[in-house]
Amino acid sequence: MILFGKLLLLALDIYFWIIVLSVVISWLIAFEVLNVRNPQAANLVRLLNKATEPVYRPLRKFIPAIGGIDITPIIVIFGIYLAKHIVITLFMPHVIY
Fold first, then answer.
1. How far lies 37's CA from each of 49, 52, 68, in Å?
2. pTM for the model
3. Are 73 and 8 in contact (CB under 8 A)?
């Protein structure tokens, strides 16, 4: 059971870093540091969108952008931390983190 909990925690950690990378890349695009016309950059953006949009899309229906800033990644990160706490509580109750 502990192994399954650790695998879930690993998956949540990986998704957290995918979200952070997605946010940083979007800032680099917004400040014109990264050019999306570059094929490698376009592929990276497309990959990150495929990984994050299925989670962002339902939330964006209920959470509008505030002043042009999309806060959906922040909400998803809070959800990840909540899910990590639940996984630790359910699968590893005797392990100290």
1. 16, 21, 24
2. 0.90
3. no
Distances, alpha carbon 6 to alpha carbons 12, 32, 81, in Å: 10, 39, 14
Cβ pair 91, 4 in contact under 8 A: yes
Which among 70, 18, 73, 76 is positioned nearest to 45, based on CA atoms?
18
Instruction: Quickly state the pLDDT bin for 1 (edges 50, 70, 90).
Output: confident
Which two three-digit tokens encode residue 13? 């950690």
Six-digit token string for 94: 């005797």
Amino acid identity of residue 65, one-letter, is A
Kindly indicate the confidence band of residue 2, based on its pLDDT and cuts at 50, 70 and 90.
confident
